[in-house]
């Protein structure tokens, strides 16, 4: 068992709003080992992005109220802003959802890709640009020396995301957090970017946290997966097992709602009934119980804790923890 | 550090081969192209440049072209009509009008450009800081600006002129063009800071700011390297439109006797001086008036052209 690279323990991040306190991240724990790929899935507002931003301490205006983010023996929630700046971009890099807006429109792309190495390795302009150009080449930008002189608006969406990935990799970070890296791209480009991320993970040994709401992406990319709902982890485990035998009704319903190519014609879709919960006023007990078809009396009373269910998985569900199998049409 | 050749994660390059159809065009290049294709705007720009050139060359022009000193009194040639000796006539003390107008341009344009430069720096900084940090910082700074903007500028100017406050060894006296510029800037940076703050608010929540933060950029770097270039265009346009306003302000101050003091020539105080002789020698009124008018007009037209060039959607 390799040493854990990054460990998040019972993280709580809140946002103060006029309507009340939003618990965006409500007691999330996970760990990632060197070179591993972890998927975080969940619907919009489930706290995936805020979890990632909290790891980087970029959650403003949100506030980390408790919990630990252990990295290299230090708790990132406690280190000074200066130390945090050293870690950002050097040890942990992040790729954002919308490549169209993640690059500064007034600077040449190469300049931006070179920025992390200039900040962290103190390289001069020319050397940094050399690193940027070679990295742009590696992420599949054709004639990188020429394209480095282009502005972001001259890049297509897929190329911009490649440039963002190149920017993240110039400092060979230990962890790469990709926050819905393919959501804003069309399907063929999505496949290319995912290929690229897979190669990066393999060739650079970068541990990757992939945030997505696309279960297919997780299936193809991640060794382990963590499912979030209303700011909490509801299920976690090896991707193969979670997908084959989901141990939380939310995961189960999510997987069931995916339309299948081999389904009967005119077979109706199977959505999850109801609406995502209001994060300011969460349902009592399990946040999923109003939408859950397996709900038992205890679900509306006690908040379930994440516990081992089956051989390899963790699930926060009273039903499966009591040994019931999730089955149904 | 990465050895550039150690790994290759590239997808096959072939399918992407091919150059961009057009060479890289920066935002500034494109704006310049648009500005160049606007003949009225370029004409106004040329007029402004001409004025600046004349002001800069004042000593040369007076030595080699007009052959007069702006202060030399010649009581044998008072109120002379335009002639070979005095191309644009002379005033009540026989001083050459053209020479005084040229030196006046020096004073007026120094005040105008310096005042705008100072208010750009002060207003720009305040706007960037207020917009970037938000919250309490923003509140304190912007309420201060509100107060500043709620006092009629002319009273502040008159007050500063009378008090002549000292900043270290420098006395802010309105009779010196540079001090006058600073005084006008001190009163006038508020509007600019508001404008910049508004622009910052719209830029700072864009993803690339978060992306820059995520690679470990400090606040100072975020502000100076990522935010400033994105609001610079707005600042430049506002500044160029402000130049005309400052020229007017300066002329008003001169005119009411609070600005540049005689015998130093400025367009404003030449006007004041000439009002006594309105019926007698009207060109003494018309010439400085016309120069103020032309310069302000040219500056405003040029400022508008700049705005159109930087933001074609506004047109």
Could you give the topology of this structure?
The complex is a heterodimer of chains A (329) and B (315).
Chain A lengths: L5 E12 L2 E13 L4 E5 L6 H8 L7 E9 L2 E2 L5 H7 L4 E4 L3 H4 L6 H13 L3 H14 L5 H4 L9 H13 L5 E5 L7 H18 L2 E6 L2 H7 L2 E6 L2 E7 H6 L4 H9 L49 E3 L3 E3 L2 H4 L8
Helix pairs in contact in A: 4-5, 4-7, 5-7, 7-8
Chain B lengths: L26 H10 L2 H18 L1 H9 L30 H37 L1 H16 L2 H11 L2 E2 L2 E2 L5 H28 L2 H8 L4 H37 L11 H9 L7 H28 L5
Helix pairs in contact in B: 1-11, 2-4, 2-11, 3-4, 4-5, 4-7, 4-9, 5-7, 6-7, 7-9, 8-9, 9-10, 9-11, 10-11
Walkthrough of the structure:
The complex is a heterodimer of chains A (329) and B (315). Chain A has 329 residues and is α/β, with parallel strands linked by helices. Chain A has a domain at 6-228: P-loop containing nucleotide triphosphate hydrolases (Rossmann fold, 3-Layer(aba) Sandwich). Helix content of chain A is 33%, strand content 23%. An eight-stranded mixed beta sheet of chain A has the order 6-7-8-3-9-10-12-11, with helices on both faces. In chain A, a hairpin with a 3-residue loop joins strand 11 and strand 12. In chain A, helix 4 packs across helix 5. The mean pLDDT of chain A is 89. With 315 residues, chain B is mostly helical. Chain B has eleven helices and two strands. In chain B, strands 1-2 form a two-stranded antiparallel sheet. Chain B has one domain (38-314): Orthogonal Bundle (MetI-like fold), CATH 1.10.3720.10. In chain B, helix 4 packs antiparallel against helix 5, helix 4 runs parallel beside helix 7 (177-204) and helix 5 (135-150) packs across helix 7 (177-204). In chain B, 67% of the residues lie in helices and 1% in strands. Chain B starts with 26 loop residues before the first helix and ends in a 5-residue tail after the last helix. Chain B has helices at residues 27-36, 39-56, 58-66, 97-133, 135-150, 153-163, 177-204, 207-214, 219-255, 267-275, 283-310, and strands spanning 166-167, 170-171. At the A-B interface, helix 2, helix 4, helix 5, helix 7 and helix 8 of A face helix 8 and helix 9 of B.
């Amino acid at each position: 068992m390799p040493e854990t690279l990054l460990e998040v323990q019972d993280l709580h991040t809140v946002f103060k709003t006029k309507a009340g306190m939003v618990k965006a991240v409500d007691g999330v724990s996970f760990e990632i080992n060197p070179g591993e790929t972890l998927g975080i899935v969940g619907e919009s507002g489930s706290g995936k992005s805020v979890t990632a931003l909290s790891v980087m301490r970029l959650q403003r205006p949100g506030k980390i109220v408790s919990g630990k983010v252990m990295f290299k023996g230090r708790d990132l929630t406690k280190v000074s802003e200066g130390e945090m700046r050293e870690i950002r971009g050097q040890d942990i890099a992040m790729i954002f959802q919308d490549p169209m807006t993640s690059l500064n429109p007034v600077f040449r792309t190469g300049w931006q890709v070179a920025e992390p190495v200039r900040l962290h390795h103190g390289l001069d302009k020319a050397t940094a640009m050399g690193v940027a150009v070679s990295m742009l080449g590696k992420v599949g930008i054709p004639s990188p020396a020429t394209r480095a002189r282009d502005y972001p608006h001259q890049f297509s969406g897929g190329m911009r995301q490649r440039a963002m990935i190149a920017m993240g990799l110039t400092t060979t970070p230990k962890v790469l957090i990709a926050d819905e890296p393919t959501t804003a791209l069309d399907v063929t480009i999505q496949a290319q970017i995912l290929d690229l991320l897979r190669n990066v993970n393999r060739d650079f040994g970068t541990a990757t946290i992939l945030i997505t709401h696309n279960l297919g992406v997780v299936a193809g990319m991640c060794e382990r997966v963590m499912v979030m709902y209303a700011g909490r982890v509801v299920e976690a485990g090896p991707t193969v097992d979670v997908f084959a035998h989901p141990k939380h009704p939310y995961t189960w319903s999510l997987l069931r709602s995916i339309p299948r190519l081999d389904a009967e014609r005119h077979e109706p879709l199977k959505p999850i009934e109801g609406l995502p919960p209001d994060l300011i006023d969460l349902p009592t007990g399990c946040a999923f119980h109003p939408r859950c078809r397996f709900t038992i009396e205890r679900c509306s009373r006690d908040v379930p804790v994440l516990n081992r269910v089956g051989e390899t998985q963790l699930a926060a569900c009273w039903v499966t923890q009591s040994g019931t199998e999730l089955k149904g049409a | 550090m990465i050895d550039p050749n150690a790994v290759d994660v590239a997808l096959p390059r072939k399918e992407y081969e091919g150059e961009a159809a057009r060479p890289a065009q920066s935002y500034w290049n494109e704006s310049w192209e648009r500005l160049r294709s606007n003949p009225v705007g370029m004409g106004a720009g040329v007029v402004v440049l001409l004025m600046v050139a004349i002001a800069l060359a004042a000593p040369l022009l007076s030595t080699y072209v007009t052959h007069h000193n702006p202060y030399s009194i010649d009581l044998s040639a008072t109120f002379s009509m335009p002639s070979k000796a005095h191309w644009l006539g002379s005033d009540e003390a026989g001083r050459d009008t053209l020479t005084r107008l040229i030196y006046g341009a020096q004073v007026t344009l120094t005040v105008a450009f310096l005042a705008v430069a100072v208010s750009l720096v002060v207003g720009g900084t305040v706007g960037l800081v207020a917009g970037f940090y938000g919250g309490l910082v923003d509140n304190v700074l912007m309420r201060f600006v509100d107060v500043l903007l709620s006092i009629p500028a002319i009273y502040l100017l008159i007050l500063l002129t009378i008090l002549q406050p000292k900043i270290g060894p420098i006395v802010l006296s309105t009779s010196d063009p540079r001090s006058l510029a600073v005084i006008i800037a001190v009163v006038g940076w508020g509007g600019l800071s508001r404008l910049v703050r508004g622009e910052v608010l719209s830029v700072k929540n864009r993803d690339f700011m978060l992306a820059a933060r995520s690679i470990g950029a400090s606040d100072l770097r975020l502000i100076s390297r990522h935010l400033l270039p994105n609001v610079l265009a707005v600042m430049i346009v506002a500044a160029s439109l402000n130049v005309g306003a400052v020229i007017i302000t300066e002329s008003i101050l001169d005119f009411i006797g609070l600005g540049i003091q005689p015998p130093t020539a400025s367009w404003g105080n030449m006007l004041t001086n000439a009002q006594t002789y309105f019926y007698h020698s009207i060109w003494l009124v018309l010439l400085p008036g016309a120069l103020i008018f032309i310069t302000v007009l040219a500056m405003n037209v040029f400022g508008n052209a700049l705005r159109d060039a930087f933001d074609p959607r506004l047109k």
